[in-house]
Amino acid sequence: MYNKNEIIHKGNIVQAVVVADEFEDKFIPITNEVPMSLLPLLNKPLLDYTLEFLYLGGVEETFLFCCSQVDMIKEYIRKSIEASAAWSLNMKIHILVSESCRSFGDCLRDLDAKGLLRGDFILLEPGVVSNINLRPILKKHKEVVKKDKGAVITIVYQKAGVGQIGRSAEDDIVVAVDHNNRVLYHKKTRLLEDKRIKLPVEIFLLSDEVSMLHNLKDAHIAVCSSSVLPIFSDNFDFQTRDDFIKGLLMNEEIMGSTIYLHLIRGSQYGGAVTNWQNYQAVSWELKDRWAYPLVPSLKENNLLKDNVIGNGTIVPHDANISRCVIGNNVVLGKNINLEDSFIMSNCKLEDNVTINLSVIGNSCTIRKGSKIIENTVLGNGVNIDQNTILKNQLIQATKPDFCEKEDILGQYAFRLKPDEDEDEILQKLPRLHNMKESIETSDDGFSDSDDENLSYTQSPVLDDTKLFFTEVIDSLTRGFEDDLQCDNLILEINSSRYAYNISVKEVNFNVIKAILHMYLRQPTGQRYFSQLLSYFSPILKNYIRNESAMQDCLQAIEDVAITNEELKENWIVFILNWFYNENYLSEESISNWGRNLDQSAKFSVQVKPFLKWLEEADEEE
Predict the structure, then answer these.
(1) 366, 394, 472, 500: which could form a disulfide with 514 (CB 3.0–4.6 Å)?
(2) Are 230 and 113 in contact (CB under 8 A)?
(3) pLDDT in tens, 1-21
(4) Are 258 and 187 in contact (CB under 8 A)?
(5) CB proximity list for 310: less than 8 A, separation 6 or greater
(6) How many alpha carbons fall within 13 Å on the CB side of residue 309?
(7) What H or E segment, with its residue span, contains residue 308?
(8) φ, ψ for residue 259, nearest 5 deg
(9) Do 63 and 18 form a contact (C-beta atoms < 8 A)?
């Protein structure tokens, strides 16, 4: 509990508010026993990632607003401070409690009544995992407020292409902004029956330049002016942040309040665990270090191929486990099959158990021969009898108030049927994804996949490909000019790749093309070209890894050469020779590529001397 007299407000202190409850029961039955903020994410409580993000982002004082299971959160904070958690060293934590709150809006109204905040503050919805530096966004917000006295909130979004697993369907939005990123229109597409957008004519009268954005992922982070809390207090129908946004836009002339958008780019990452799909996405993005330096403390023995294994858990040699996160001290029997699932700590899985696309809570026991498949959640302490088959079910260990005979599966296993309509029940099922393709094309190493047979003019949408190529050139140019580490540039490129949903072939092709374009901007000779290529060697090594990537590289050289025929042709032979001598291109890959060229084309004539030399060198050997 906070002591109001102990809280001293300083002029420049950076404050944040974290609402710890999600109010929608999307993680039941597990959250019946554990608060959502303490859900294990890669075997570490979710709240720990949120607090570490705020600490690294420059926040000095955080108000943690809790409405349920408060004692568990207090105990966790107490133990973390005693253990000198990184975030506890220079950031004060105040736990605010109000068990009467039933919505996000209620929490902010209660916070306003307490009178603890006097200036701008960072507002986080539950489950935020990010590495964003908040101070520049806060500074930008203050600058906007000086120009626009009505500006009350800046909402943080990240680019995310359609189909990216981290972009939840429930958060799909269309946003219209002016040239200052002032929000003119905001609509969640899941609320539209026919998915057609009807734009008010008024938004085009407010500005001579309007941009429509649909490739966005909500980071569930906002910078708020001091007037945000009183607005919630004055409008009791504002129950969510979406209600707040909708209300301000509909009544902008009356309320005189405006909304702004901030788009994060490059290696910055903004994610939020708002449902099981995002839980899965954020888990793998954390494992692949998207949120660096916010990374889980995984040792070599915690990683087994594409799985994360907790401490004290031993995986038998005959186990078939793919793309799973397994908690601490889990006992695994013989001949088990686990795929795209989460097994939390202290569970026991006996022989011949199969689990896929499901979530198993802490301290569960699954007897021999059982199958837990396709979007099933077992709450903490559930005990499943032998040869049981569960599909699309929510199972808890305690008997619910209303329980029919067919819903009793065992002494500690009861089928949960929330008192809601069928559609709302279905929304609480995990809906996990088969992550095979995502893992095969992860940041740690791109490999061959089905998209090898795609042409460069297919998926993704052409505009997104152009935007990706532009961002790659920007990253490489800035890296070369500022002498940045290539590892950081790779992180930026991969972040852009996932933001625009770019295929592996497109990444390889556009990275090589971008490096060549940097030379063609100022073709000052082969010495500069050599310096450029040598500097980017770690990037070339990262992306040109196999025969398919070599063909992507050669395709990029061919494409750039054909579109820049006015330049001297000797640079083409130089680049081919350099890639060959540095072992980025094999003799076989060049020969195969050369045989498929149009022999009558000018480009084919330009590279013919090199191909001939390569053939003669091979014959001499």
Answers:
(1) 472
(2) no
(3) 445 444 444 457 889 999 988
(4) no
(5) 43, 302, 326, 327, 328, 329, 330, 345
(6) 21
(7) strand 307-309
(8) -120, 140
(9) yes
- What's the whole-number mean pLDDT along residues 453-480? 65
Amino acid (1-letter code) at residue 360: I
3-state DSSP of 527-571: HHHHHHHHHCHHHHHHHCCCHHHHHHHHHHHHHHHHCCCCCCCHH
Domain 13-286 in this protein, CATH class: alpha beta
Location of structure tokens 């709302």: 424
Secondary element (H or E) of residue 97: strand 92-97
Query: How large is the C-alpha radius of gyration of the chain?
Result: 27
Q: Which of 566, 559, 562, 470 is nearest to 518 (CA)?
A: 470
Does residue 441 register a pLDDT over 50?
Answer: no
Tokens coding 425: 């029940």
Residue that the structure tokens 């889980």 belong to: 296
Both tokens of 348, joined, read: 């026991």
Q: What's the rounded Cα separation, in Å, for the pair 496 and 500?
A: 6
- Look at residue 93 in the predicted model and tell me its pLDDT: 92
Closest C-alpha among 370, 373, 327, 333 to residue 349: 333
Residue with token string 């407000």: 9
- Region(s) of the chain under CATH 1.25.40.180: 446-620
User: In the chain, where does the domain assigned CATH 2.160.10 lie?
Assistant: 301-427
How far apart, in whole angstroms, are the C-alpha atoms of residue 611 and residue 573?
9
AA identity, residue 80? S
Q: Is 375 left (phi over 0), alpha (psi -120 to 50) or beta?
A: left
pLDDT confidence of 128, banded at 50, 70, 90?
very high
Distance CA 356, CA 337 (A): 8
Dihedral, CA atoms, 198, 201, 206, 212, nearest 10 degrees? 30
Residue-wise pLDDT for 518-574, tens only, equals 877 665 566 777 888 888 888 988 898 888 888 888 888 888 877 766 555 567 788
SS3 87: helix
How far are the Cα atoms of 26, 303, 436, 509, 511 from residue 280, in angstroms, in the given order? 14, 17, 13, 29, 29
- Stated pTM of the model: 0.70
Helices (H), 367-435: 422-427
Q: What string of H, E and C letters represents the secondary structure of 556-619?
A: HHHHHHHCCCCCCCHHHHHHHHHHHHCCCCCHHHHHHHHHCCCCCCHHHHHHHHHHHHHHHHHH
Number of helices followed by number of strands (H, E) in the chain: 20, 30
Where in the sequence of the chain do the CATH 3.90.550.10 domains occur? 13-286
**Fold entry, domain 446-620:** 1.25.40
Per-residue confidence (pLDDT) for residue 354, from 0 to 100: 94
Question: Does the domain made of 301-427 have the CATH classification 2.160.10?
Answer: yes
pLDDT score for 8: 44
Neighbours of 456 (CB within 10 A): 15
